[in-house]
Design a protein that fits this description.
This protein is 48% helix and 10% strand. It has 452 residues and is α+β, with helices and mostly antiparallel strands. The strands form three sheets. Strands 3-4-8-7-9 form a five-stranded antiparallel sheet. A two-stranded antiparallel sheet has the order 1-2. A two-stranded antiparallel ribbon has the order 5-6. A hairpin with a 2-residue loop joins β7 (384-388) and β8 (391-400). α5 (140-153) packs across α10 (247-271). The relative contact order is 0.07.
């Protein structure tokens, strides 16, 4: 019943009453001329009328006057998404803070205007938790700003990547509904108790709509608008990203999740939580790898005409290919769902050993895609180093693709240019000694068979 605005008006009115009363008592009761009843009563009546009139005026202003038409707050934009579909909210969003782009404008001026507006807009939600079920959760503002800072640390990024990082969770301000419990009127100094609940499920369409209403958004060209809105809208559903989108859209998508993954690592490190995937995550990872295995191999650069130090591997012919394991994992991970990719820590993949190599090798072994020899050179381990044109390819697999099992993939690879060089496998000292002993044993057995 007693809103914060009402209690604020009451508090100001009380200060005015007591302050003016003190002035009247000081001026008329303790002045040089002493107490004058007529002047005193006149002053009291003037004070009473002005106080009541001022209270009513302030209350009327706070009750009926809004500031929506004075300055663009971010919600005077169009009600359409990037495809022209009408996007109507069942419960209209209202900006409850007064002109945040003025009172909370970022200090750093070397950022894009949309970044500045987003930061100012999010500053109005410093008290709204990012996770309403976690009492220790960051606020929406703190979480978005942390993603923004991690995005700025990633190489080869620009302002559009940082805008997407800031915008990913804008929709939460609509999803969360605040229920305010106010203290009695006489306890006007007590803060309201706020409890949040979900109005609806979160999805990227909410965030992309709010992003589209930022005042500076209309200054962008149509192609950039489409890339930003598409990346934000389908941030958690990459399979729905239109196939005709440009590379900027996919770059924005990748960078946003990469920044969020780095933030999760920092938060889990501070709270000593374990980031290891569950058995369910591992099973889902293997199943999705199986589903996208052929398309992932097709996306690799296995052209023999490409220099070995610049390619993802080499197709040797007859279904045999040498593939860098980190490149194969990176190609397959682009098709995984964001939750599995985050659980398996596949947003940042380097050429160093990754814990998911073993799971990928298990899938390849199950599909019988790992070759056991290269030109009569026996392979003892799944991951090896190969030499092509005097250049070493480390952490690589030897894949054998049968025509009967994978006709489409085999046909695609057979259309590549012919391999005209040589390929060797590097072996360590232990494997060489073991192989020499095996061959010497065979020679001894052959000699004995001649004289038996």
């Amino acid at each position: 019943m007693y809103t914060p605005q009402f209690r604020f008006v009451l508090l100001i009115s009380l200060f005015v009453i007591f302050g003016t009363l003190a002035q009247v008592l000081y001026s008329y009761s303790f002045g040089e001329k002493g107490l004058n009843i007529e002047i005193y009563i006149s002053g009291v009546l003037t004070l009473l009328l002005s106080t009541v009139g001022g209270f009513v005026f302030i209350w009327m202003c706070s009750k009926f006057i809004t500031f929506n038409g004075l300055k663009a707050t971010g919600f005077e934009g169009v009600f359409r998404d990037e495809y022209g579909t009408n996007f109507v909210f069942k419960h209209p969003i209202r900006l409850t803070k007064f002109l945040p782009d003025l009172i909370a404008k970022p200090i750093n001026g070397n950022i894009h205007p949309i970044e500045s507006e987003l930061i100012a807009f999010l500053s109005g939600y410093k008290n709204m938790p990012f996770d309403i079920y976690d009492p220790k959760s960051l606020s929406i503002y703190e979480h978005s700003m942390a993603m923004w800072r991690h995005s700025k640390r990633i190489k080869n990024t620009n302002s559009y990547h940082h805008i997407t990082a800031l915008s990913k969770y804008l929709g939460l301000i609509y999803v969360y509904k605040a229920k305010r419990k106010s203290a009695p009127l006489w306890q006007f100094w007590v803060k309201d108790k706020i409890k949040y609940s979900k109005r609806c499920l979160f999805h990227g369409g909410l965030s992309s709509f709010i992003l589209s209403t930022m005042p500076s958004f209309n200054s962008l060209d149509e192609k950039t608008k489409r890339s930003l809105l598409t990346a934000v809208r389908f941030a958690d559903n990459p399979m729905s990203i239109p196939a005709n989108c440009d590379q900027l859209t996919f770059s924005l998508y990748e960078n946003t999740h990469r920044a969020e993954q780095r933030l999760k690592k920092v938060l889990n490190k501070n709270s000593s939580k374990d980031l290891d995937p569950s058995q369910t995550d591992i099973l889902q990872f293997k199943q999705q790898i199986k589903d996208f295995l052929q398309s992932g191999i097709k996306d690799l650069d296995l052209n023999p005409s490409t220099p070995a130090n610049q390619s993802d591997g080499v197709y040797l012919g007859l279904g045999v290919a040498i593939i860098r394991l980190p490149c194969l994992l990176s190609s397959l991970s682009k098709n995984l769902t964001p939750d599995i990719r985050s659980a398996m820590d596949l947003w940042d993949i380097s050429h160093k050993h990754h814990k998911n190599w073993d799971y990928l090798i298990e899938v390849l072994q199950e599909k019988e895609l790992l070759a056991d020899s290269l030109d009569e050179q026996k392979i003892n381990h799944p991951v090896n180093s190969f030499v092509i044109d005097s250049f070493a390819i480390h952490n690589a697999l030897l894949i054998k693709i049968e025509q009967k099992s994978y006709p489409n993939l085999r046909g695609f690879l057979d259309n590549l240019p012919q391999f005209k060089s040589y390929a060797l496998i590097e072996k360590n000292e232990e494997d060489l000694i073991k192989e020499i002993k095996q061959k010497s044993t065979k020679i001894d057995e052959f000699i004995r068979s001649l004289y038996s």
